[in-house]
Amino acid sequence: MRNKKEEIYYNLMMLPAMVLLFIFSIVPMLGVVIAFQRFIPAKGVLGSPYVGLANFAKLFLYRDVGQVFYNTIYISLAKIILGLIVPVVFALLLNETRFRFFKRTVQTVVYLPYFLSWVVLAVMFNNIFSYTGIANIITKALGSEPVMYMINNSAFRPIVILTDVWKNFGYGAIVYLAAITSIDPRLYEAADIDGANRYQKMRYITLPSILSVIILMATLSLGNVLNAGFEQIFAMATPLVYQSSDIIDTYVYRMGLISLQFSFATAVGLLKSVVSFFLIVLSYVLADRYAGYRIF
Amino acid sequence: MKSKITLYDIVIALVLGVIGFICLVPILNAIAISFSDKTSAAVGRVVFWPINFNVSSYIHILQEGRFFQAFWVSVRRVVLGAIVNVSLTILTAYPLSKDKKVFRHRDIYMWIIVFTMLFNGGLIPTFILVKSLGLLDSIWSLILPGAVPVFSVIILMNFFKGIPKSLEEAAIVDGADPLTVLTRIYIPLALPAIATITLFSIVGHWNAFFDGKIFINTLSKQPLSTYIQSLTVELNFQAMQSLKPEEIIRRLEMSNLTFNSAKVVVSMVPILIIYPLLQKYFVTGIVMGAVKE
User: Which of A101, A114, A193, A262 has the highest CB neighbour number within 10 Å of its CB?
Assistant: First the structure.
């Protein structure tokens, strides 16, 4: 009896969240049917005619779609790879310094960019990479002609990748720093007795000890292969650099809410959601099998 | 310190110092520009130190109603959004922390919640939904679509799981119902975790700009980050219209470099004020969320 009464409470506690998730998550999932329609806003989702896979066929007709997918994967893979290496190197370096106060100061500073919005950072990077900004002061000091970095296709993509790494590496290092603190100190004591120097201890004790966390992070980042960072590119890109930096999400936004091709935009978005879903599930399965990690 | 400072220590410290400095460059640069005079900023003389120090940009902001309107919308959004997010997270995390034997439907709920995290209908169906619910231009369009933060629910659920069962059992013997157990035992014990998820929510709402852009059409109702994004759009639009670099340069010089930088600096202030808290609780949060044993 007691058990039943408690379950009523539990169900009631779940109710508000379930109602909201139903309306704002499940209903839009059902809304993807417009990817198979020629959606007419006046007729609504229920009244618009079905056109089968015609919207998906357009994916092969529009020439820019291939470039958009290429940009997405190029940018996200670069971010994933650098986003793994830089935080690990930084965590190892930070662990090497013996000046406590200095260490804490550096940590305070490098976590800060993570908390700033991309729109704020976009204004700042527009300043830095403008014709008269710091980047061009350096360029001129090195004897080259100034460049309009933010509207230059060969410069903009690296800027997107590097500023993303800049924003997130400090925060990304937290996991590795936590893993480093849990290393058994006796390992280092044994290495001291064997006469290992500090570089050797880092190379042969610290790095192997956090390797499992690095592999786990690499696995979990698999789910982000189609996420190249919508907010960042939306805030920083101009039409002049679409060729190198237009990604699936910005393309869906423009096709859907600017050009009002609702059905086509939904089809592109659906394709991305489905592929991402399988990538995330795959990454969780791999993480569970090889690292014993379960998210829930 | 065990031994004396070696070359190794100095090299490591120098590299870390440079890394730390690089993290501050854009911020210091924006602050310096915001306190400089327009011409010096436009011709690119300002790096990390203001030239012809003045506060006219900030006075300009004080006189501009739009900035504070947007600032106030953001404050309201953060307060409302955090209350909604945190209450729903607590209410959901508690039943989900129960064992399947105690709460039979637990796994079904869990699967629904995780599924909504892994898969979504995408931008267009969400937009059509918000529009047909009549929420366009309402502050609720910025709060309700993300009302249940799944990642926070999982963090708090795991924290609740770590609280000893004996406490709850004793309370139940004394006749307490689950709501009393939650408010009297679980919430007080989970305050550090609740602080973490509250900060997640505050930062998320303060920084979000895209929902404000698509759901809010009336300019006076847009949150601050959406307003700041519209500042860069003006520049982008100019860049698009005139392809000749000389023309773009001329327009960029005319654009309000110092004024925009000042707006960005002011918009960072709330984040900087709560930054000590952020640093303390986000670190625990990421560790709880990511390297859970």
Answer: A262
